[in-house]
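Appendix B. Chain record.
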Amino acid sequence: MNYPIAGFGPAVGFSCVVETRPPRHRRFAPGRVRAGVTEARLGKVLMRVLVVEDDLEAQRYLCKGLKEAGHVVDEAGDGETGLTLALSRPYDVAIVDRMLPRLDGLRLVAGMRGERNMTPVLFLSALSDVDDRIKGLRAGGDDYLTKPYAFAELLARLDALVRRRDPGSVKTKVAVGDLELDLLSRTAKRSGSAIELQPREFRLLEYLMRHAGQIVTRTMLLENVWEYHFDPQTNVIDVHISRLRAKIDKGFEAPLLHTVRGAGYMIRAHA
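Structure tokens predicted for this chain:
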């Protein structure tokens, strides 16, 4: 489904294909960054993605689509912040706009390469002339996608960039003890027995398993699984944790999902 978005200039349109949302029309403006996972139907890989986009609404849609595809995303709204994040955290791929405040996209990527940071970079820009694309690639970009674009194509390009960089880095399964998630088929099983999960339950379990052995707070779950940046003052987490625990631990001698009183939750394999 197409989402026409305007705001990259008075005469520039932006169209993003996001197959998992109902059609709606919003107006856009330039965006930011956060880090990544998996697109089940299209067979995408688990990724940490940095998004540097100064149009906040455009960035919001982009980051939401990436998260819905399963990726972990960090966002930055200007070039200087984007460069700081790129040099201080490990990313599988970065999406960078050309026209950014404080430090433009070309200088941001040149700065990364100057520090020998070879994270693959996809330029995403309304600057579509051949000369603009050449400048982006020569500055150190690995790919260049112009706006408007199809979101499915963007996902495919990111997937290809990560595969080219390190074919062995593609993760399609996550396991904790005898519990296993298949990120491509979106299925779960424990000790070989299939577990039926609803989409939200799968996202919750995936997030917990990606942080196996760590305390995951309610705030972390609200922000990364439900995409709430406030406390809705409901028991939605408790309900889902209870359902998830019943599905993955019931009938097994050793539980994997634990409540850490006063702190949050943890999934860990038994000793």
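Further analysis of this model is presented in Appendix C.
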